[in-house]
Structure formats: structure tokens, C-alpha cells
Amino acid sequence: MIQIGAIEIDERELEEHFIRASGPGGQNVNKLASAVQLRFDVRRSPSLPDDVRARLERLAGRRLTREGVLVINAERHRTQERNRKDARERLVDLIRRAAVAPRPRRATKPTAGARERRLESKKRRSNVKGLRQDKPAME
């Protein structure tokens, strides 16, 4: 079981495939399948609450397939075990971020001073640009 706060994910829900890593590395890269492709079915997982599932789908972006499967490729390290650990850590991090509901934005208005400064800078900029033209600048 993978524990993430109040969420528990059964390791049987994770599917791991070992593939060859891309990039430089000489003979080692050509012989060994050290990269890990971790797959986690977000839509069918009984472990995830609905709100966390929705946020996780949004956070996953391009890593989520049309079927709702989250795919994480880990090939940073030379060994299969370290890549496996890296992929799981990245999954846990994503779920941890999805488990926290974002605080709603509170609408605010600019202060009177901020509005005044903005208008003053616009006037100054207008004046500078006016000096570049043939017509007289405004004051």
C-alpha cells in the first residue's frame, strides 16, 4: 500500500513496464531495460475520491491518455530500481498536489493610490511618445 495522507493506493493498481532508456549511454543503454513506464488508471481507481480524481486529471496534462491512464516515464537513473523509485515518487507527488484543494481567489479592487499611480505613468508615457511626433505634447 502506498500511503498519501488519507489516501491509500494498492500497489496492484500500478502497472510497471521496463523499457530501454533513450539518449547516450553506450552499450549499457542498448542491452538493458533500465527505464520504467509506470501506468496508473486514474478514472477506474477505487482509492481516489472524486474531487482528487478531477484535480489529478487536470494536473496530469499530456501524461494522461484518453482512457484516463496516467503514464509516467522514468529514465533519469542508470538502474531499474532507482528509476522505479523515481516513478513512484513522481506519482505520489502528483497525487499529493491533487489532494489539496486550491483556495478560491478573492476578488479585490485596486486602491485609489494604485489607480492614481497607474494613470500618472500612462500620462508620462503618453507625453514621451507625443514628443516623438510632430504635434505638441499634452500636459
Question: What report would you give on this structure?
Answer:
With 139 residues, the chain is an alpha+beta fold. Helix content is 40%, strand content 18%. The protein has four helices and five strands. The strands form two sheets. A three-stranded antiparallel beta sheet has the order 3-4-5, with helices on one face. It has a two-stranded antiparallel sheet with strand order 1-2. Helix 2 packs across helix 3 (80-99). The longest helix is centred in the middle third of the chain and has 20 residues, at 80-99. The model has no long low-confidence stretch (mean pLDDT 82).
Total DSSP helices: 4
Low-pLDDT segments, ≥5 res: none
Q: What is the CA-based Rg, rounded?
A: 26 Å
Computed structural class: alpha+beta
- Provide the β-strand percentage band: 15-25%
Elements, N to C (H/E): EEEHEHEHH
Strand order of the largest sheet: 3-4-5
Looking at the structure, what is the overall shape? elongated
Number of strands: 5
Percent helix, as a range, is: 40-55%
Oligomerization category of the chains in this entry:
single chain
Estimate the mean pLDDT confidence: 82
The major β-sheet equals: 3 strands, antiparallel
Distance between the termini: 71 Å
